[in-house]
């Protein structure tokens, strides 16, 4: 009978349950048999109006008080994942949290803790800390097990410390840093030393995700080495780079391996007063490792018709080499000539099923749509003329719509007006 089961067996059964409602039903059914043991404390916390999000499957202790402490001390050791508050006593955590549990830390900074108190956290597997904890760079040394580092409003001093930590870490897998100065107010540089440390981390560990926003690189060749080495790692799941320079130059790149998507955004250097196309060529060159992957969805943002003829040829090798199923190109003030350049580069794209050229905030000119319908390769079956970022004040006239739909029907294309 269930009542004869040892408490440790009951605990294992309960912690095997994933759904909170199922768990509550199980606890309620077992209580009359007096076989919950320490799990009675889990039920008591539920009666104290502790939310599901704080109890299951992760134990969140950031709101622990004296009334709940006695119950938490009886069940904390059974959890494999625990979240603590920055003010949580490290001695208490060592006593009640299982040594193999992974711990996240949230809520404020260590303003009042001394080094002896901080040193006690080394014995706890803290794998992630809230960005607010990053008050002083030298706190990182007390968290040798970090898997995730996320730091927004990241100062130069903090970024330097994070990259230095990453270079020697054997556990860090995800790094997200966003400079505190945006491109309108200032610039946070990635120095040569910082870039070297970042490269060491990437080269030595099975990294999973990198996000670097609003930093500028002092040495472009190091940027190339960092990006290309990261993209060459089979363990990498996501890469996000966002760089904006004083000249007006902007480059944004987002890669998602699971979704097989690559998004690139570039402000036209000539249009924005920065005419060094060599920099763009270098940026595109750093993406070389992606060209032999299974990316099927490519989105290219922020082209401007003026200068499009200079920029598009730089992207053609990428477009032609990838086995794309979907291509989206955003071109402001797009012309027929721009559309022709795009479709001519896709004549041998046998896998391409969806092509979308987008003019933001308004519909594509009629002659551009006709050009696309007449000239796209036979593999294309979808030609969205409207997307989420297009606001059409005046739709195509009924006569124009009929002309476009009739031509699309003859080509076997689904035209989304």
Describe how the helices and strands are arranged.
Layout: H1 7-14, H2 20-30, H3 40-47, H4 52-55, E1 59-60, H5 66-75, E2 81-85, H6 90-96, E3 102-106, H7 115-119, E4 126-129, E5 148-154, H8 156-168, E6 174-179, E7 188-190, H9 192-204, E8 209-213, E9 215-217, H10 220-231, E10 238-244, E11 250-256, E12 261-266, H11 277-285, E13 297-304, H12 308-321, E14 326-332, H13 336-344, E15 354-358, H14 366-375, E16 382-384, H15 398-411, E17 414-416
Parallel strand pairs: 1-2, 2-3, 3-4, 4-5, 5-6, 6-8, 7-9, 8-10, 12-13, 13-14, 14-15, 16-17
Antiparallel strand pairs: 10-11, 11-12
Helix pairs in contact: 3-5, 8-9, 9-10, 10-11, 13-14, 14-15
């Amino acid at each position: 009978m269930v009542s004869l089961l040892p408490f440790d067996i009951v605990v294992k059964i309960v912690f095997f349950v994933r759904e909170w409602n199922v768990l509550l039903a199980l606890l309620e059914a077992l209580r009359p048999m007096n076989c919950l043991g320490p799990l009675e404390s889990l039920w008591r916390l539920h009666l104290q109006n502790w939310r599901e999000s704080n109890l299951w499957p992760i134990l969140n202790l950031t709101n622990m008080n004296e009334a709940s402490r006695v119950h938490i001390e009886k069940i904390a050791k059974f959890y494999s994942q625990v979240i603590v508050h920055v003010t949580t006593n490290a001695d208490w955590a060592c006593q009640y949290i299982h040594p193999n549990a992974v711990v996240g830390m949230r809520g404020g900074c260590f303003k009042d803790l001394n080094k002896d108190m901080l040193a006690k956290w080394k014995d706890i597997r803290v794998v992630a800390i809230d960005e607010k904890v990053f008050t002083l760079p030298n706190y990182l040394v007390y968290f040798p097990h970090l898997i995730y580092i996320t730091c927004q409003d990241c100062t130069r001093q903090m970024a330097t410390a994070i990259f230095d930590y990453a270079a020697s870490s054997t556990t860090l897998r995800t790094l997200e840093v966003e400079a505190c100065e945006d491109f309108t107010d200032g610039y946070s540089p990635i120095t040569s030393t910082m870039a070297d440390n970042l490269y060491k981390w990437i080269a030595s560990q099975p990294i999973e995700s990198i996000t670097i926003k609003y930093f500028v690189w002092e040495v472009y060749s190091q940027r190339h080495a960092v990006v290309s080495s990261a993209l060459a790692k089979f363990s990498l799941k996501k890469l996000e780079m966002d760089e904006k320079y004083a000249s007006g130059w902007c480059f944004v790149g987002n890669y998602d391996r699971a979704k097989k998507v690559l998004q690139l955004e570039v402000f036209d250097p000539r249009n924005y007063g920065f005419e060094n196309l060599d920099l763009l060529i270098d940026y595109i060159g750093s993406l070389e490792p992606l060209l032999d992957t299974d990316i099927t969805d490519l989105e290219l943002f922020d082209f401007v018709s003026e200068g499009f003829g200079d920029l598009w040829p730089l992207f053609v090798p990428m477009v032609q080499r990838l086995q794309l199923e979907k291509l989206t190109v955003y071109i402001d003030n797009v012309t027929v000539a721009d559309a022709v350049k795009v479709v001519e580069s896709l004549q041998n794209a046998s896998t391409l099923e969806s092509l979308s050229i987008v003019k933001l905030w308004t519909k594509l000119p009629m002659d551009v749509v006709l050009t696309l319908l007449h000239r796209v390769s036979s593999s294309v079956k979808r030609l969205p003329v409207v997307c989420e970022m297009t606001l059409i004040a005046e739709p195509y006239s009924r006569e124009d719509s009929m002309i476009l739909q009739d031509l699309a029907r003859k080509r076997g294309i689904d035209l989304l007006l």
